[in-house]
Amino acid sequence: MGIRKLGYVGLNVTDVEAWTDLLKRTLGIGVTTAKFGTEEIGLAELDEFKYRVALYPSAEDTPRHLGWIVDTPPDLDRLTQRLTDAGYTVEDGSPEETQLRGATRLRWFTDPVGYRVELAIGEAKARTSVARPDGTHPGTTGLGHFVLASPKLAELRELYESVLEFKLTDYRAPGLYFFRCNSAHHAIALAGADAPSIHHLEFEHGSIDDVGRSYDRAKANGAPISISLGRHMNDKAISFYVQNPSGFHLEIGCGGIEVGDDWVPHDFGVSDVWGHHHTNTNPFASPAS
User: Fold this and answer.
1) Helix (H, G, I), strand (E, B), or coil: what is residue 166?
2) pLDDT tens readout for residues 88-131
3) Which of 203, 235, 234 is nearest to 218 (CA)?
4) CA separation for the pair 73, 263 (Å, rounded)
5) CB-side exposure of 161: number of CA atoms within 13 Å?
6) SS (H, E, C) 56-85
7) Using DSSP, how many helices (H) and how many strands (E) does the chain show?
8) Domain that residue 98 falls in
9) How far apart (Å, rounded) are the C-alpha atoms in residues 44 and 201?
10) InterPro entries given for it (predicted)?
């Protein structure tokens, strides 16, 4: 009990219109707007809940916040104490922030990289089903995981594994680690890099056919496919990647395995069973330690 899943991601983006076009026309994801203070932000509707990705107009493209859903108020209090004991300052989210997230309680802290990490109780259902363009049903089914690259790999591992109680699923030497907070293979991966960044954010899809339809639409619409269709070695997911307007990747995938408490972490060796050819150099081909 504790953190249950990745709930939402907020992004500062320089081109909300380009993001909206990619999400709607190519990926079949609805985007609505909402007021936050004086800003009008875009909310990407991946499933029946309020939103999974929030797009904040900005002069720079940077992560704004990463939101984890916590099971119960006692779990939130316990994790808050663990963070405080580890030297983190935990603060309550504002009423406006809490309402926008669809949460009943919200707390946040700053991770070793400088990103705002939120812990939320509750999720608000905003619809009974999600409208999709023709040929995309059921399309996306939710937010899967993200990969965070940073020169502070050791500090991030300590935070997620020792403080927030994520479990190591597997790794690839010398500097790429996959962690889970539920039965899915991973909710976050941490990698060594010279500068902090989100390498990719993954959107879960209902089937290989849904992934294939998105792949066809991406090619037809001229979307920048940055990593071709393929199957990963460790979680067995079938996916492809597009480069989004902020410069990092969106992974469109399905079929990742689930693991139990008897799972033994191991080095999974090569990255892919087949496919996943990169248009640019793969930064994790030989990860920095």
Assistant:
1) coil
2) 999 999 999 999 999 999 999 999 999 999 999 999 988 777 76
3) 203
4) 29
5) 15
6) EECCCCEEEEEEEEECCHHHHHHHHHHHHH
7) 5, 17
8) 3-121
9) 13
10) Fosfomycin_Res_Enzymes, Glyas_Bleomycin-R_OHBP_Dase, Glyas_Fos-R_dOase_dom, VOC_core, Xdiol_ring_cleave_dOase_1/2
Asked if residue 281 is part of any domain, the answer here is no
Task: Provide the whole-model pTM.
Answer: 0.94
User: Are 220 and 262 in the same domain?
Assistant: yes
Contact 237, 184 (CB under 8 A): no
Q: Scanning the structure block, which residue is given the tokens 């849904």?
A: 210
- Tokens linked to 73: 């108020």
Boundary (domain end) residue, out of 91, 121, 151: 121
d(CA 209, CA 207): 5
What would the two tokens of residue 51 be?
A: 């939103």
pLDDT tens across 228-247, in order?
A: 999 999 999 999 999 999 99
pLDDT at 251: 97
Same domain, yes or no: 165 and 100? no
Asked if the structure places residue 173 within a domain, the reply is yes
Which is it for strands 140-150 and 188-192: parallel, antiparallel or unpaired? parallel
Residue 84 and residue 147 in one domain? no
CATH number of the domain that 249 lies in?
A: 3.10.180.10
Is 160 in a helix, a strand, or coil? helix
Residue 4 φ then ψ, to 5°: -95, -35
